[in-house]
Design brief:
Order of helices and strands: EHEHEHEHEHEHEHHEHEHEHEHEHEHHH
Family: Belongs to the UDP-N-acetylglucosamine 2-epimerase family.
Radius of gyration: 21 Å
Helix content: 40-55%
CATH superfamily of the largest domain: Glycogen Phosphorylase B
Number of strands: 13
CATH architecture of the largest domain: 3-Layer(aba) Sandwich
Protein name: UDP-N-acetylglucosamine 2-epimerase (non-hydrolyzing)
InterPro entries: UDP_GlcNAc_Epimerase_2_dom, WecB-like
CATH class of the largest domain: Alpha Beta
Number of domains: 2
CATH topology of the largest domain: Rossmann fold
Organism: Paenibacillus aquistagni
Distance between the termini: 38 Å
Keywords: Isomerase
Strand content: 15-25%
Length: about 375
């Protein structure tokens, strides 16, 4: 007799969540006899979120469309929670999957807890051990872990963090990072950028440095220091071409325009779609960023990354040698960038570091664990080591 299908609700709201959850959704959808997969997006991000869904050819079943100009954390939290509450009343899900450390992830997990629905946390266990950096993500992630039943830790370090905090070993699974799955599925050797300006970049004869910067804790003086460093790097190296897709935040836009605009080798772009961003990373010499997820995506393509933050929740990349914590001091950033540009041994040392985050099979492991959770298979997958 056919077992009743289990309803798995996948909740996300931002581009990083979408890119990392879409491979899991696609894997769930290969088991239509067992799972009724519902996609719920909050719209915490809008255009970039939609672009990722288009890349993976997915349509949400519910779209809360909560994004508005200058939205506060309190607004995103309350609007998403109210919207999810009604959906969960209607759908009666058997499992909710959330990802990472966003407001949407935190709210999705709490909504599941309020409705006594089991929660699975993809990318569990990451810690910077500083509740204000990254802010508010560090505490969001800890809250999600607290109410989750299945903890999908990307690496052994994530599992160690969770065990130290008292979580039970039987609820923790080392899966690898779904960002690796997504990047490998999206990268193309022969790629034409949708952003036409990128097709004019001479990747073969220029040293292309990709920049991203958006973190709230870097607003103000830290961001000014970061951008002054970027301009000095461009001024000092004639072969350098800097490509910076500027975040939509008005604060970031203002800083970028005042310090970086007008330089003939600093290309300020609108935010890129996911496919463009992944393929830009693969063509770059190295990365300057304050991002979390970019640390994983850069590792897929063995691109050194100078992390313009004082802490990281992805210590594996630092330990592997592919990421250096540069902080936000102008002189430190410039010094490290100059070392990458001028010291071939240092560059090759970073570029040859092993990717510690995954092998492209994280989504398969996660779905097999879910199947095991529901008694549909007897064996758990081998963990990612």
């Amino acid at each position: 007799m056919q077992t009743a299908r289990r309803k798995v609700m996948v909740v996300f709201g931002t581009r990083p969540e979408a890119s990392k959850m879409c491979p899991v959704i696609k894997e769930l959808q290969t088991y239509t006899n067992y799972f009724d997969t519902k996609i719920v997006v909050t719209g915490q991000h809008r255009e970039q979120l939609d672009q990722v869904l288009e890349v993976f050819d997915l349509q949400p079943d519910y779209d809360l469309n909560i994004m508005k100009a200058n939205q506060s954390l309190a607004y995103v939290t309350s609007a998403a929670l109210e919207g999810l509450d009604g959906i969960l009343d209607k759908e009666k899900a058997d499992l909710i999957l959330v990802h990472g450390d966003t407001q949407t992830a935190m709210v999705g997990a709490m909504a599941g807890f309020f409705h006594k629905i089991p929660v699975g946390h993809v990318e569990a266990g990451l810690r910077s051990h500083d509740k204000y950096s990254p802010w508010p993500e560090e505490m969001n992630r800890k809250i999600v872990d607290t109410v989750s039943d299945l903890l999908f830790a990307p690496t052994s370090l994530g599992k160690t963090n969770l065990l130290h905090e008292g979580y039970q070993e039987e609820q923790i699974f080392i899966t690898g990072q779904t960002a690796v799955d997504a990047a490998l599925q999206t990268h193309k050797e022969e790629y034409v950028f949708k952003e036409s300006k990128l097709n004019a970049v001479d990747f073969n004869h220029s040293t292309v440095i990709t920049v991203t910067a958006h973190r709230r804790e870097n607003y103000g003086e830290p961001m000014e220091q970061m951008f002054q460093a970027i301009r000095q790097i461009a001024d000092s190296h004639e072969r350098v071409q800097i490509v910076y897709p500027v975040h939509k935040s008005p604060v970031v836009q203002e800083h970028a325009a005042s310090i970086l605009a007008g330089h003939d080798r600093i290309m300020l772009l609108d935010p890129l779609g996911y496919s463009d961003m992944i393929n830009l990373l693969s063509c770059s010499s190295f990365i300057l960023s304050d991002s979390g997820g970019l640390q994983e995506e850069a590792a897929v393509f063995n691109k050194p990354l100078l992390l313009m933050r004082d802490t990281t929740e992805r210590q594996e990349a630092v330990d592997a040698g592919g990421v250096v914590l540069a902080g936000t001091n102008k002189e430190v950033i410039v010094g490290l960038a100059n070392k990458l540009l001028l010291d071939e041994e240092f560059y090759q040392q970073m570029a040859s570091s092993k990717n510690p985050f995954g092998d492209g099979k994280a989504s398969q492991r996660i779905v097999q664990i879910i199947r095991h959770h529901f008694g549909l298979v007897d064996e758990l997958p081998e963990e990612f080591l």
